[in-house]
Amino acid sequence: MKKRLFILFSLFIVGSAIVQAQIPEGGLNNWTPSAQNTYYEPTGGWWTTLNTLSALGGPVTVSRTSDVHSGTYAAQLETKQWGTFLLPGLLASGNFIMTAPFIKQGQPFTDKPTRFKGWIKFTSVNGDSSAVLAMLTRFNKATSKQDTIAKALQIIKNSILEYTQFDVSFDYINTEIAPDSILLFFTSSAGGNGSPGQVGSTLFVDDISLEYSNGVQELLMPEFSIDVFPTPATEHLSLSFNTTNTEQFLCHIYAIDGRFIQSFTPSEKNHQLDVSEWQQGSYIVQTWIGNSFVSSAKFVVVH
Predict the structure, then answer these.
(1) Alpha-carbon torsion angle 261, 266, 269, 270, nearest 10
(2) Cα-based distances in Å from 189 to 33, 84, 87, 168, 206
(3) What's the pTM?
(4) Nearest to 25 by CA among 181, 232, 206, 242
(5) What is the per-residue pLDDT across 184-214, written as a single tens digit (0 to 9) for each?
């Protein structure tokens, strides 16, 4: 019985993604307390954990921490014992469900990034390893399953005492098909030396991003959030920042193919753009404070 949950999560790593919701803004710098006020979850509903199992007496395995690479908070994932079960800390894009493997995987996504990046620290117990994974998938009507389009996986086999960047390239199985969803997955125990995991193995995660072939980066866990609406936009686009101190920001807009569009400093929390003359397609707005890349958001223009 002790290995049961860990085996389920090992199968989870190679499973298929299921479309659920949109990528939120705010990421790991914004956390919301549970209804019982016994733990915190990442705000926005895009990320999920196994913390809901605490309602059944399970331990909290993912928590916010001020031990960060940048910003206010990061995620701390710790493997814990729950009776005869070994419960890894899991952070994934998806929704929690009350049946094994407890997480519906994946969120909508249609682009083709080339690299999966972020910052991590890891404490390995007795040779345990951790893992970071990104998978792009597309629903196959013929089989009623999600086909894997590309995968970026890194197993961390040794302790990492200071925040260190992981930078993993996507291995595309099919370059002709666009994905419809993305699974991002982090676990504090991926098994090591034939072990199903070790209590106390701890993974810290912060500042996750995707990079495209043209060098454009999309920050998935921004320090400051940007809401863009409507998307798709036809004539005007509104950008809303989660702070009134916008004079510190410098925003750059790029087309998804890497073309530079414009730069601006928002004069207030809500900023308007005229996109009536822009080409149709996908765009990314990047927000910088000095030399620090602190937020991004994608939007689409159609006419």
Answers:
(1) -50
(2) 25, 16, 9, 19, 17
(3) 0.72
(4) 242
(5) 999 999 976 666 789 999 999 998 888 887 6
